[in-house]
Amino acid sequence: MLYSEKVMDHFRNPRNVGEIADADGVGEVGNAKCGDIMKMYLKIEDGIIVDVKFETFGCGSAIATSSMATELIKGKQVDEALSLTNQAVVEALDGLPAHKIHCSVLAEEAVRAAIKDYYDKNGIAYEPEQFCSGDCSCCHEHDHHGE
Ligand code: FES
């Protein structure tokens, strides 16, 4: 079978869909590969993610991974949520077909973007590298100055 039971379950009954009007952090990301969009809302109290919701115009795998990602970070410390990887989400779903792995990246990036927004709004200092997945050149741009 192409998709695990868990993927089908989260796709059919996604958890935490919607928006949080007074969210403390909102992240919106697009998938460069397919153009799909994901929006993640976080409600944060005392450094804990007390509520999380998402909206997506994405495929079934994007819906399933976002749903699982929200369950994994709910009730967690912000910095714990920051270390959530798409591999962890995929494992929690008992795997995804290889050509669908990029969909799970959307969920991971949306979580990070929402946390970054929260840090920015609250003047919390952070290392830019924390928000870099390492597969882009954004953090290394300064290396090329003067070349
Ligand atoms: Fe776009 Fe899956 S095909 S997120």
Describe the structure.
The chain is an alpha+beta fold and 147 residues long. The chain has helices at 5-12, 60-73, 78-82, 86-92, 101-121, and strands spanning 25-30, 37-45, 48-57. The model is unreliable at 137-147 (pLDDT under 50). The N and C termini lie far apart (51 Å). The protein binds FE2/S2 (inorganic) cluster.
Rg over C-alpha atoms, rounded to the nearest angstrom: 15 Å
Distance between the termini: 51 Å
> Quick one: how many beta strands?
3
Helix residue percentage: 25-40%
Q: Which blocks of ≥5 consecutive residues have pLDDT under 50?
A: 137-147
Strands of the widest sheet, in order across it, are: 1-2-3
- The fraction of residues in strands falls at 15-25%
Bound molecules: FE2/S2 (inorganic) cluster
**Judging from the principal axes of the Cα atoms, what is the shape?**
globular
State the order of secondary-structure elements, H for helix, E for strand. Answer: HEEEHHHH
Total number of helical segments? 5
The main sheet comes to: 3 strands, antiparallel
Overall pLDDT: 88
Structural class: alpha+beta
